[in-house]
């Protein structure tokens, strides 16, 4: 029974991560129609929080599984290898973004993604720009979450040891680092004055919460029924309030006429770079409700009918790189056809093509990888 439950939880995580990756793809296509209906339009956070939290959860799960089979040393080495794989994926994604941006610029496609891919810098100083990408000082379009991800996975074995033994101290240390994050950001190499798009000193809080959720659920989850009910009521209130704030955030004309100017400025904007408090609060409220849905078996039942999306989440690194290429290609295609910002029918067509590519190629890649694993196990048994 435990094995079945573990597998179900893994499938649920893969489903949610797959949905987050699809959101990331369409959110990065300027003019996208489907981007008007992703999670960022209904909450104060977006798919990035989901991706980073689940990265922490998955890192904890991978460590525990490997530790149970081969010991702590092998588990640590596995995460270090994964960190190196993520770094290589970042370099590959960064180089692809430079090349695709260069091609769009040469074709004179008026897509905003051209500047976001760092193509102008690449055309002006190609060698220096490439070295900046390799050194993490320049992080082109979409790829900017990967350097932070690689750092977190590389340091995860240390964090895991601390979180398992001293969960309260781990939380306090993570919160303290989050509070100091803006002052620490200049320590990182960057070609831009504003620094990394994702401040890892802040976003470690989200990754750490994912780790702790997997490693010490006894510490994270309330044990008494009354406490669970209180969390549920609080989560509903927070989620509804954040949905209302999101509605206002995206429609300033609704409140500008009757609210004093200083009041909205205390709430908006919500800096993503430093992981604003309301983003964290909004995420936690909805995360608790999703946890309850998963515990009731609803998410697992949905996963049965969304196999390709589960495959995208299961092979997230490959699909992330693929999604980055798809985002810039689709934006270039739709802007090229329209000669500027595309009409909604053209943009929707581009969205559907982007999603279809992710589902088809991601599903194919997942089935291929799993077939190889089955063949390798069969060969070992035969031998």
Automatic annotation (TrEMBL):
<keyword id="KW-1133">Transmembrane helix</keyword>
<feature type="transmembrane region" description="Helical">
    <location>
        <begin position="146"/>
        <end position="163"/>
    </location>
</feature>
<feature type="transmembrane region" description="Helical">
    <location>
        <begin position="315"/>
        <end position="338"/>
    </location>
</feature>
<keyword id="KW-0472">Membrane</keyword>
<protein>
    <recommendedName>
        <fullName>OpgC domain-containing protein</fullName>
    </recommendedName>
</protein>
<feature type="transmembrane region" description="Helical">
    <location>
        <begin position="168"/>
        <end position="188"/>
    </location>
</feature>
<feature type="transmembrane region" description="Helical">
    <location>
        <begin position="276"/>
        <end position="294"/>
    </location>
</feature>
<dbReference type="Pfam" id="PF10129">
    <property type="entry name" value="OpgC_C"/>
</dbReference>
<feature type="transmembrane region" description="Helical">
    <location>
        <begin position="200"/>
        <end position="217"/>
    </location>
</feature>
<feature type="transmembrane region" description="Helical">
    <location>
        <begin position="344"/>
        <end position="365"/>
    </location>
</feature>
<feature type="transmembrane region" description="Helical">
    <location>
        <begin position="47"/>
        <end position="65"/>
    </location>
</feature>
<dbReference type="InterPro" id="IPR014550">
    <property type="entry name" value="UCP028704_OpgC"/>
</dbReference>
<keyword id="KW-0812">Transmembrane</keyword>
<feature type="transmembrane region" description="Helical">
    <location>
        <begin position="229"/>
        <end position="250"/>
    </location>
</feature>
<keyword id="KW-0614">Plasmid</keyword>
<feature type="transmembrane region" description="Helical">
    <location>
        <begin position="15"/>
        <end position="35"/>
    </location>
</feature>
<feature type="transmembrane region" description="Helical">
    <location>
        <begin position="86"/>
        <end position="106"/>
    </location>
</feature>
């Amino acid at each position: 029974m435990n094995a079945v439950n573990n597998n179900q939880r893994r499938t649920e995580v893969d489903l949610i991560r797959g949905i987050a990756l699809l959101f990331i793809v369409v959110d990065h296509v300027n003019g996208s129609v489907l981007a008007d209906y992703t999670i960022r339009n209904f909450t104060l956070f977006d798919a990035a929080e989901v991706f980073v939290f689940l990265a922490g959860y998955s890192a904890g799960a991978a460590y525990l599984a490997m530790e149970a089979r081969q010991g702590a040393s092998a588990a640590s080495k596995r995460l270090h290898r994964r960190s190196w794989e993520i770094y290589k994926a970042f370099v590959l994604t960064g180089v692809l973004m430079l090349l695709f941006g260069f091609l769009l610029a040469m074709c004179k496609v008026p897509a905003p993604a051209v500047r976001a891919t760092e193509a102008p810098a690449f055309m002006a100083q190609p060698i220096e720009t490439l070295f900046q990408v390799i050194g993490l000082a320049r992080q082109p379009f979409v790829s900017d979450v990967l350097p932070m991800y690689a750092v977190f996975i590389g340091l995860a074995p240390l964090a895991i040891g601390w979180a398992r033994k001293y969960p309260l101290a781990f939380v306090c240390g993570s919160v303290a680092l989050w509070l100091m994050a803006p002052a620490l950001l200049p320590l990182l190499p960057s070609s831009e004055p504003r620094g990394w798009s994702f401040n890892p000193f802040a976003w470690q809080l989200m990754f750490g919460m994912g780790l702790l959720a997997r490693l010490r659920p006894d510490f994270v989850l309330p044990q008494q029924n009354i406490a669970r009910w209180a969390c549920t009521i609080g989560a509903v209130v927070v989620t509804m309030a954040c949905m209302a704030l999101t509605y206002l955030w995206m429609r300033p004309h609704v409140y500008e006429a009757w609210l004093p100017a200083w009041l909205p400025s205390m709430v908006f904007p919500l800096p993503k770079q430093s992981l604003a408090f309301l983003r964290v609060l909004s995420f936690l409220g909805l995360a608790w409700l999703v946890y309850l849905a998963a515990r009731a078996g609803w998410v697992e039942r949905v996963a049965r009918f969304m196999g390709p999306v589960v495959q995208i989440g299961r092979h997230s690194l490959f699909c992330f790189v693929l999604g980055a290429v798809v985002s810039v290609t689709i934006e270039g295609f739709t802007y090229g056809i329209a000669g500027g910002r595309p009409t909604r029918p053209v943009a929707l067509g581009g969205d559907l093509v982007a999603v279809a590519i992710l589902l088809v190629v991601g599903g194919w890649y997942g089935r291929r990888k799993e077939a190889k694993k089955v063949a390798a196990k069969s060969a070992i048994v035969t031998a």
